[in-house]
Design goal:
It contains 15 helices and 21 strands. By secondary structure, it is of the alpha/beta class. Strands 3-4-5-6-7-8-9-10 form an 8-stranded parallel beta barrel, surrounded by 6 helices. Strands 12-11-16-15-14-13 form a 6-stranded parallel beta sheet. A hairpin with a 2-residue loop joins strand 19 and strand 20. The radius of gyration is 24 Å and the shape is globular.
């Protein structure tokens, strides 16, 4: 494989970023190895039988790694018991311990598991409180030395037991120290990882992977790109774990994951994937597998010539400047158009903005020359290339450099009859084009779906997942894990049923406080696990009611929304 730098010429051909190889048990990561798939248990790690049974289901679904939470030393130790039971049953793939706040648990896990995930946001730094802290340069350097003193002995134990490490940075759990110096930004997330990576490199410990995640796909994609750029600058090539945190469930969770993860995979970035759904963990595996297989099938495609437009920001793209033709292009939100008839979409809640017969489109194939167009044309762009996103992007960048401001609507067709297949593929393709600021509208054709009008709903879902247009309630909900202290899957369904009519509202539904208050920091309301069977309710970042029994928590949430003037009664 060839190294793919973000600044390379000929930017639209698919090839994997070359990373170093990390030995994780008997399943190595990075290098020339396939992109690995993983998930996380939702059982109590102290319940050996339940955890073993769930690990087996996840492995049977096709996972390469399974992660278990280890809040304390007892849980970390018991992962060793779970591992032994799995090995006795013939399941020898690696287990990963997930650590927050507790270095002692990490030390124990390093001796009992194949990989330990630590969070730079709370491994040594105190838990996030959203307080502004002031440091002199000398005081800040002293904080970094404190981290070093804690991490070096941990590295020694990992080296002794041949245990790999994942540095897992989450947007929702950046420390107050990082926040105070860098803000709640992608730059802060990258520096949180780099502080630890520099220590690992100085100690010559190389079995390290990195994840750097957010529930906001725009932030997630920008942050990973910044991390790759910074690692390249410091000659680091560690493998990357991709994921969109708190993606949700059902259609929304699949589309949101595909938008964020698929955009990066299409750039060749990513060595292992976890799709985080608020569902049973084994259901995450086929979604991740479809996404990885769809993108990697582009390997070795016919070359696409071209390079990024001169005005394009590769790390954090802004929308390509276009002329407004009616309500398409310019400052208008991206539109949804369809080849279906008005009769076909009569029953759906959110109607398309246009039918293809409504506009005098200029149909263009992305293999054509990007010249000879008027700024008042609306280009309906398609591709038949094995890497359609690459070819479409190359065409639009040529258009951009040629000074043409004609708006572009992209039309892509999927022959799959399975809803999940279409959600994953279309989410990855259109998501990349939207996150990269290149299109003014989308047309999703899916003629073989049981209900082909669902393609319109998926289109609006993709626009919302890419943070380009909001047309429905957004739910930021995490997958269950062993830290979850209430029935999260039931809560997600119950809250959606009661509030899905509140279009434009963001509601966070979180299992615990580890990432909850931070990951849902831009949510309007939050529902966060606080104790066994109890939740705390948030308005923005502020906790307004603590330890509410789950059986009445929905009523209290609705009352909170009403008290703040954001409630409307659903239409009958």
């Amino acid at each position: 494989r060839q190294t793919k730098h973000l600044s390379a010429m000929n930017d639209f051909n698919y090839r994997r970023r070359h990373s170093s190889t990390v030995q994780i048990g008997n399943v190595p990561l990075g290098g020339d190895n396939p992109i690995r798939i993983q998930s996380m248990t939702s059982t109590s790690t102290l319940d050996t039988d339940a955890s073993v049974a769930q690990c087996r289901r996840i492995f049977d679904a096709g996972a390469d790694y399974v992660r278990l939470t280890a809040q304390g030393v007892r849980e970390a130790h018991n992962i060793g018991e779970i591992r032994a039971a799995l090995h006795a049953a013939g399941y020898t793939k690696p287990l990963v311990a997930d650590i927050h706040f507790n270095p002692k648990a990490a030390f124990e896990a390093a001796a009992t598991t194949d990989k330990v995930r630590i969070n730079p946001g709370n491994f040594v730094d105190a838990a996030r409180t959203f307080k502004k802290l002031e440091y002199t340069d000398e005081e800040y350097a002293a904080e970094l030395e404190k981290i070093r003193r804690a991490v070096v002995p941990f590295i020694a134990i990992c080296r002794e037991h041949h245990t790999a490490v994942r540095l897992g940075v989450n947007h929702g759990s950046l420390s107050d120290r990082i926040m105070s110096r860098y803000g709640d930004t992608p730059a802060g997330m990258v520096e949180s990882a780099m502080e630890y990576l520099r220590i690992f490199r100085e100690e010559n410990f190389n079995d390290v992977a990195i994840s750097i995640k957010a529930s906001n796909t725009v932030i997630m994609v920008e942050t990973v790109r910044r991390l790759v750029e910074e690692m390249d600058r410091e000659d680091m090539h560690y493998p990357l774990h991709l994921g969109v945190t708190e993606a949700g469930d059902g259609e929304d969770g699949r589309i949101k994951s595909a938008v964020g993860i698929g955009t990066l995979l299409a750039e060749g970035i990513g060595d292992t994937v976890r799709v985080s759904l608020s569902e049973e963990p084994e259901l995450e595996i086929p979604v991740a597998r479809k996404l990885v297989d769809y993108i990697t099938a582009r390997e070795g495609h016919a070359p696409i010539n071209g390079c990024f437009a001169k005005a394009y920001n590769r790390i954090a793209p802004e929308r390509r400047p276009t002329n407004a033709v009616g309500s398409i292009g310019g400052q208008n939100v991206p539109v949804v158009a369809t080849a279906l008839s008005p009769v076909d979409v009569a029953a759906i809640a959110t109607k398309p903005d246009f039918f293809l017969s409504d506009v005098n489109w200029k149909a263009v194939d992305a293999s054509a020359k990007a010249e000879g167009f008027s700024d008042d044309d609306v280009l309906l762009l398609t591709s038949h290339h094995a890497n359609p996103v690459g070819e479409i992007e190359a065409f639009i960048h040529r258009l951009w450099d040629n000074g043409c401001k004609a708006p572009v609507v992209v039309r892509m067709s999927y022959d799959d009859a399975n809803e999940e297949d279409v959600q994953v593929k279309a989410g990855a393709d259109f998501g990349a084009l939207l996150l990269n600021g290149l299109v003014d509208g989308i047309v999703l054709d899916a003629p073989n779906l049981p209900n082909n009008a669902d393609a319109v709903a998926y289109s609006f879902g993709i626009l919302q997942a890419a943070r380009r247009r909001t047309t429905k309630t957004e739910y930021i909900s995490c997958p269950s894990c062993g830290r979850t202290l209430y029935d999260l899957q039931h809560a997600v369904k119950e809250i959606k049923a009661a509030t899905s009519h509140l279009k434009g509202l963001k509601i966070g539904i979180m299992g615990c406080i580890v990432n909850g208050p931070g990951e849902m920091a831009d949510a309007d309301y939050g529902y966060v696990g606080a104790a066994v069977g109890k939740v705390s309710l948030y308005k923005g970042k502020e906790c307004v009611e603590r330890n509410v029994p789950q059986d009445v928590a929905l009523t209290h949430l609705i009352d909170l929304i009403k008290a703040n003037g954001d409630w409307t009664e659903p239409k009958q």
